Amino acid sequence: MITLLLFLRTGVAVFSGLLIWVVVTQLVGGNASLPSLLIPVWCAGIGGGVLCTVFSPSQGVSLAAVSGVVMALGWLTLRHWVLQIPLEDDWLIALWPMWFIPAYYVGAYGYLRFLWSQHRR
After folding, report:
1. d(Cα 32, Cα 15) in Å, to the nearest integer?
2. Which residues contact 49 (CB under 8 A, 6 or more apart)?
3. Domain boundaries, the chain
């Protein structure tokens, strides 16, 4: 039962991050510059990481790390294996999904620090 709950939490965190990514991408614009790629990634990762910690403060950081890896591998698989998009010369732009991992972690850890600071008062 706990394993099913962890899979469901990971799925909700990934899909909420995907929803945030889509909304922020539409707001920022769709050009291929590094800031226009990373702003939606960080917004989605921080939102998804906070959601992971809301689900379970004790498991939030590890759940966020797993969710970030799932998002990064999913996007890299879609871009490079399914759509056959090459790395090209600017590999920072080509590997932008790798930023989901630290973004989810920062979101979860930041919210956990916020909870700790509220608890101390």
Report:
1. 23
2. 13, 60, 64, 67, 68, 103, 104, 105, 106, 107, 108, 109, 110, 111
3. 34-120
